[in-house]
Amino acid sequence: MLKHIVLWKMKDGVEGRTRQESALKFKQMLEALPPQIPEIIQFEVGLPIEEGDAVSDICLYSSFKDLAALKAYQEHPEHLKVIAYAKTVVAERRVVDYNF
């Protein structure tokens, strides 16, 4: 099994939205992916309960069978649509993938 964890900081003021509003839209887009991508085993998207300089605006905790399944998810057309949106609103991205 492979875990895929991503943390994002959003840009402020994109499309007239606050960082929090952009994060919420991004969260909704991400949460629409699991029914469309069979390689996803587990998928949780979270927003922070508090703010601060070290706090990310949104996080993804997901799991996949293996690296090939993660790659299939990353290359899926529906995921690529979400990534296109992310490129317009994300200021910073951190990711870690690991086997467990």
Describe the structure.
The protein is built from 3 helices and 4 strands. Helix 1 runs antiparallel to helix 3. The termini are close together. The protein is α+β, with helices and mostly antiparallel strands. The protein has a single domain (2-99), classed as Alpha-Beta Plaits, CATH 3.30.70.
* Mean of all residue-level pLDDT scores: 97
| Rg computed from alpha carbons, rounded to a whole number of angstroms | 13 Å
How many β-strands, per DSSP? 4
> In the CATH scheme, what's the topology name?
Alpha-Beta Plaits
Largest sheet: 4 strands, antiparallel
Question: Can you give keywords for this protein?
Answer:
100 residues; alpha+beta; Alpha-Beta Plaits; 3 helices
Topology (SSEs and partners):
Elements lengths: L1 E9 L8 H13 L8 E7 L11 E7 L2 H9 L1 H13 E10 L1
Antiparallel strand pairs: 1-3, 1-4, 2-3
Helix pairs in contact: 1-3
